[in-house]
Amino acid sequence: MDHDRDRSDSRQRIVVTGLGLVTPLGVGKDEFSRRLFEGVCAIDTVKSFDTSAVSSHLGAEVRDFTPRDFISVKNLRRMDKTSLMTAASARMALDDAGVTINAENRDRIGILLGTSFGATDVTVQVADALMGEGPSSVNPILVPNTVMNAPAGHASIELGFRGVNITVTHFAVSAETAIAYAVSEIKRGAADFMLAGGVDILSKFYYESMTKFHGLSPDKDGQEGARPFDRLRNGYVAGEGCGILCLESLSSARNRGARIYCEITGSGMGSSPTLPTEWPKDMGGILRTFRRALNNAGVAPGDITAVMASANGDRVLDAVEARAYGELFDACAQKPYVTSVKGSLGESFSSGGIRACALALSVEKGWLPPTVGLSNPLAPMNFVMGQKKDIDVKHAVLAGISFGGTYVYLVFSDCKSQ
Amino acid sequence: MNSKKRIVITGLGTINAIGNDVAQFAASLREGVCGISEIDLFDTTGFRTRKGGQIRNFNPRESIPREFSLKRMTRADQLALAATIEALTDAGLYPLPESFKEDMGVVIGGGSGGLFEAETFYAELIAKGLDRSRFSRLSTVYCASSADRIASNLGLLGPKTTLMTACSSGANALGYARDLIQSGQAGIMLAGAVDPMCRITYAAFNALKAVDEDVCRPFDRNRSGLSLGEAAAILVLESLESALARNATIYGEILGYGVSCDSFHMTAPDEKASGAVRSMRAALKDSGLSTEDIDYINAHGTATPANDSTETRAIKEVFGPRAYSIPVSSTKSMHAHPLDAAGALEAVVSLLALSYGFIPPTIHFKERDPECDLDYVTEGARAADLRHVLSNSFAFGGNNTTVVFGKYEGQGAVHGS
To answer: Which residues, in sequence order, are CB contacts of B142 under 8 Å at separation 6+?
Structure first.
């Protein structure tokens, strides 16, 4: 009767065994991986809506995604864009892990999804109806999709898993938090398999709002573009997409003979007093949270091979992040490599899911993707520039930093040799 | 399980339709006060319904100390901060000593956040256009803003996040906060939820025809929907060790937490009640208790035709014949349904019931439904010595969460004794 509780073991090792992706670099792990490590830039002029009213025009859009390749006809019409991307990514992650949902395992498979802004396209449709035509014109079919937990709910209905189902919505660290939480759910025995990651989409209103907050790189003197860690950076380019990991315990993966990408050996969470919508100006929160994650994983700064940074081209964020790593690795003889994929994928806020997939691939393949858009580094660091770096990745760190002062760091480790 | 730290609650704070603080809320729960009436937070012309469980007489400047600026704070952020200050004060942690900040964090179950203010902005945007609208007013529209405001104002440096599983958000926030303390990621955690009323939510529930035009009647044969409410509810969680070390007064213990998903329909519960059954069983298992140990069930009890019969069926499946001898009540009949804050508010209800030895009633009950045949405590509050309370929260998206609370018996100071 107590078999679930017997599975609770905080010393359980948690590994990544599946990846699912719907991104501007491509749909599915293979296409994504090929273009990521080739250093392809997915940023282009936005085509899915009109940007002529605002001062930015670039974006990293998902373009070759055909939902009906992944979603049943029955559910297709009920689902919004965030839900379609999520359910498709979840299906790919389970397929990649070789997990088939059945009556025996469905209650032990769950999802922890991060979304920073949810279905902004649907929310605006509801607001337009309510404000423009009055309460009676609100279409009830749209209502469930305005709620942040809709994508995870739709994914569970489409795929049939009935375990833990939770949505995290805390700005730019939503997906990193979801992954840390999912690891904790397997360790406490609440699930055997967890799908974990994040989704965010571009929509006209959302994009226009971003320009009004002066976050986006503006179209001025031909300077619009994403340049993480570059001296000439002037803001980020908006992106979208979904990335989902399939997580399970190491013993479960070994028993199944599953391919293991990497182990998630530690996590740290933290805060620092920061104004709403502003990136932290001091590095205290990064230092504290980074150290917590390393302590949790039982590794030292000198053990870290690479950092997948949060930097997106914002003037404040990139500077504070670079300064923090300078301090953290100051005493290390061999400085870790630092890279950011947001020069290629843009900033999608719940990017942590996609970036976690990228880092899992990096550990598995021994390649680090280049920081697209970086040519004049703001500080002397081991940035991966120009092309991918071939290197044996022992321990790597996924950085999650949010405006408003929230931090999540995750440690991904190679477990091939063990 | 036994090697894990025991987690206790040492502070409560709330603002809702029947209480602007915990003391008033406790008195209202015992007296069976109805907080549902015509709302005036916004104009209800054109809506099918007019009523709701609105917070009345909330004066942020009275509830929030002057050291905190209210500038650009939405109603959601103000309610959350006010409940936080009450909870910290209750726990003997306000002003917050510097030494606690490093390991102290916050998990909030997010609701509509600053949507109420965003609606005004959006109406203006439609009228004036992009370039003449002040987008800075959207800076705190998202529900994650409340946790940011709490942490930044108090100087917290520990874990911070916002969970959103619709009507079970508040219950999940408690569960995750417990886990963060147990796994050593945090010392003391603030956990709870806030969900203020707004036009979009009101319109959405009107569109779904899920709202009773009068007052909600949980478990009644003629029930026809919920009453929308609003609330902030914040709890202070810490390890028993920590509570004893600082001589804190204890309300009770979080013994178990279980989550499941229907995987059935976005807005309707699975008629077989499988999701609700699984979340209750998971919480019981997590707590190490058996069905014999539960003395009171604080039901989700929204008063929609589907929820109440499904929940009743689920309780009977989990508890078997004993279901008929366990008091089950829906306090939503009094404070209405504050959506994403419901799980946290009903955690406060559960802890007050445990501490002060009473079972709050289900009010507005008139006629028995053959499908709802349990003891719903319809005659008024009952005195009862409770040891274990189970609280259900079910949600859109098919998310189900159950939390089990226990009376704390042992060394140290305890509320109600």
So the answer is: A116, A117, A169, A171, B110, B113, B114
Contact of B80 with B106, CB cutoff 8 Å: no
**B300 part of the active site:** yes
- B110 in contact with chain A, both atoms CB, cutoff 8 A: yes
CB atoms within 10 A of CB A284: 17
CA distance B224 to chain A (A): 18
| Domain boundary, last residue among A203, A221, A256 | A256
Closest CA to B395 of B204, B266, B233: B266
Rounded CA-CA distance B199/B205 in Å is 10
Question: What is the CATH classification number for the domain harbouring B178?
Answer: 3.40.47.10
Cβ contact (<8 Å) for A166 and B172?
Answer: yes
The answer to whether residues B337 and B379 belong to one domain is: yes
Q: The whole model's pTM is what?
A: 0.97
Q: Are residues A235 and A271 in the same domain?
A: no
Both tokens of residue A325? 């790593």
- B321 and chain A in contact, CB less than 8 A: no
Structural domain harbouring B355 = 257-407
- What angle, rounded to 10 degrees, do the helices at B144-154 and B75-90 form? 50
Residue for token digits 């073991």?
A9
CATH classification of the domain holding A113 = 3.40.47.10
Domain boundary among the residues A237, A256, A275 is at A256
Q: Return all residues near B344 (Cβ < 8 A) that are at least 6 apart.
A: B109, B170, B171, B173, B174, B191, B192, B193, B231, B233, B234, B235
Beta bridge partners of A197: A113, A244
Closest Cα partner for B226 from B381, B342, B316?
B342
Inform me whether the pLDDT recorded for A417 exceeds 70.
Answer: no
Query: Of B143, B216, B300, B372, which is the active-site residue?
Result: B300
Check whether A385 has a pLDDT greater than 50.
yes
Terminal CA-to-CA distance of chain A, rounded, Å?
Answer: 34
Cα separation of A299 and A29, whole Å?
29
Determine the structural domain holding residue A326 and report its residue range: 265-413
The pLDDT of residue A142: 85
Number of structural domains in chain A: 2
Domain count for chain B, please give it: 2
Residues A25 and A117 in one domain: yes
| CA separation for the pair B87, B224 (Å, rounded) | 35
* Strand locations in B104-226 (E): 105-110, 160-163, 189-195
pLDDT of the residue at B150: 98
Please state whether the peptide bond connecting residue A369 to the residue before it is cis, i.e. omega within 30 degrees of 0. Answer: no
DSSP for A367-388?
Answer: EE---TT-SSBSSSS-B--SS-
Is the Cβ of B179 closer than 8 Å to some Cβ of chain A?
Answer: yes
Q: What is the pLDDT of residues A272-320, one digit of tens each?
A: 999 988 999 999 999 999 999 999 999 999 999 999 999 999 999 999 9
Among B167, B198, B216, B372, the one annotated catalytic: B167
**Is B269 an 8 Å CB contact of chain A?**
no
Task: List Cα–Cα distances, B284 to A328, B206, B271, B391, B405, in angstroms.
Answer: 44, 35, 22, 11, 10
Residue A247 backbone dihedrals phi, psi, to 5 degrees: -115, 145
Mutation for B interface: A116, A131, A137, most B CBs within 10 A: A131
